[in-house]
Protein 1
Amino acid sequence: MKLKTLFLALASALLISPIAFAQAPIVIKFSHVVAKDTPKGKAADRFKELAEKYTKGRVKVEVYPNSTLYKDKEELEALQLGAVQMLAPSLAKFGPLGVREFEVFDLPYIFPSKDVLYRVTEGPIGKSLLKKLEPKGIIGLAFWDNGFKVMSANTPLHSPADMKGLKMRIQSSKVLDAQMRALGANPQVMAFSEVYQALQTGVVDGTENPPSNLYTQKMYEVQKHVTMTKHGYLGYAVIVNKKFWDGLPADIRTELEGAMKESTRYANAIAQQENDKAMAAVRASGKTTVYDLNGKEQVEWRKALAPVQKQMESRIGKDLISSINKESAALLLK
Ligand code: LMR
């Protein structure tokens, strides 16, 4: 009897376990640092929804927003180690990884419009930038838009001279460092998750971010002044661990690529409206004074930041910078 039970148990284990294994979903941990209610947060959730639907549950995407799993620097290390499979860091955070070319996106006023931006991110320049990640064990799947940045502090920022001596939080980009120095400010690299408290306690005087981050992180509540400088861009590269991605069954990878394509269209479609909505909410809050630069002031900011492109040429690559400038010129001629 005992032998029969043992035999049955063995037989059923042999029969059931392959099925059980086959049914265990592939888990994608997708970590990011912003709120759910932002262009990136919403696009990550959309990717989860589509990926699970298209793979009929064979893939489960776990989204960890707001630095709940990892902060800026840690998340890139975690991806390379395989502790998470997917991230969408801002393009300003790839320098420390050794891919300096991504900092081209941080150059002040490099994109005169979103049309130029999309020509870059959706065209051959974007493709060749993503390729540069592969030797780092990373595959770049897409670019997700966010928006142009505004500058904030506890003192009014009308002209570049108002930035003099201010301690400004920046992301880990040498271009952003050069940008703040060109304005006479003292840049300080800090993880995104620490910015609110640093602003609140006066560890730094100010920062720069698109309105969607300024609003959802409540930074506007601890910054008395916001200026619509729109001096630079912030967007994302959606990236995966290469070993993980290459090891996926081909049909699953195809479904995930489809989900990513659709989420990317969605991310780019909502970015501007999410930022406009956030800015309207910041203005309506009455907690900060929002200043719109006049024409003369805009020229002053551009003039103060103009030297940064030349300064950063050797770091980023002259050809890359001029290829983006050519895209701008081509659109202007259209
Ligand atoms: C920042 O650190 O300021 C941003 O990159 C955060 C983000 O991911 O939008």
Protein 2
Amino acid sequence: MKTQVAIIGAGPSGLLLGQLLHKQGIENVILEKVSPDYVLGRIRAGVLEQGFVDLMREAGVAERMDSEGEIHDGFEIALNGVRNRIDLKGLTGGNTVIVYGQTELTRDLMDARTKTNQTTHYQVNDVQPHDMLEEHPYVTYESGGKQYKLECDYIAGSDGFHGVSRKSIPKDCITEYERLYPGGWLGLLSDTPPVNPELVYIRHERGFALCSLRSQTRSRYYLQVGKNDKIEDWNDERFWEELKRRLPKDLADKLITGPSIEKSIAPMRSFVVDPMQYGRLFLLGDAAHIVPPTGAKGLNTAASDVYTLYTILTKVYGQGKTELLKEYSKICLRRIWDGERFSWWMSNMLHKFEETSAFNEKIYNSEIEYYLNSDAGRRVIAEQYVGLPYDNVE
Ligand code: RFL
Ligand code: PHB
């Protein structure tokens, strides 16, 4: 078997890259470890920057996102019971974000791939990239008891944080930067009307909370939980009680609760690998970097990697500009570190970690109060939340 670009992983990064390359006439095959239903069952991101939205449009898969996604002009940060609005549109000269679930956009990308008869092999095992430093790399895998070899020009490693792509690079060729946070996010999805039409991020002495949504009838709430907490410790009743405690009073009074349709705990981690490439293997999205979810940057930083690789490969195949290939990592990492810094900062400002000294707690409280009470401070938050521009690829 032969293709131009072998893509490992059918998450949003791999699927979006595949669709964009297909639009440019660049053939690709996706290899995915689990089933389509399993991929769609993972409830994750909800907030899309303009850059992501533009890529979905360029890929020709934006119809449902444009009709069902909600444009958000602002969001709130509640500090010790007081609500503060960040007017994204006003503070950034007209920029906004779109609330549209990762599950939905993944479904749209999968459907587009099926309609255009592109190949995705689901439930394949032992995926392994080979000869990444050679001119003719290939990927081997097992499916239905048979071994396969997929020859290609380039390999896109978009198989998430636990995937095989990054692990295939010799340790002495990369540097990994990591910060683990003591605790995680417990998320609950319910078919109840959201407590507020816009997102509310909450700093509270009992810990961080977030009120998010998928639509005006479906809510997504999160609570910061301890590092040893397990999902079994949190029945729905305990979740709602704790959320009410952390909400500003007016919101607590109007919170509508209901049975959860999904509940999971996500760890909080900052992670970057440098460089994000090894010969003809290019890492994208969570395979190369992770952020704690506080700034809503995970999927959005993945999108800028997709943009960069897609633009480079289009110029390589269309204009023979192979010299651009070695620029991939450098172009991606500049913007990635912006996303890492913002997510780390938002996490520090809004969470309560046991390891933080009483002095630092006071400093964080003072710092976020300062930002929220200053026009310049709110603008700094708004500009990063809507997403910094993509770097030129040339
Ligand atoms: P994914 O989504 O992890 O997809 C990787 C795919 O690769 C497959 N795979 C393999 N396939 C073949 N062989 C192997 N050996 C393989 N190993 C793995 C996996 O099965 C999977 O299908 O990575 P991708 O595509 O880079 O996408 C990244 C995003 O999923 C992630 O960054 C975001 O979800 C992060 N995130 C958020 N990002 C935002 O931009 N805005 C948000 O509001 C936001 N909220 C969130 C989030 C992540 C969360 N969790 C659970 C970590 C909220 C949460 C709670
Ligand atoms: C979500 O809706 O899942 C969500 C929104 C904003 C975040 C993280 C997650 O910062």
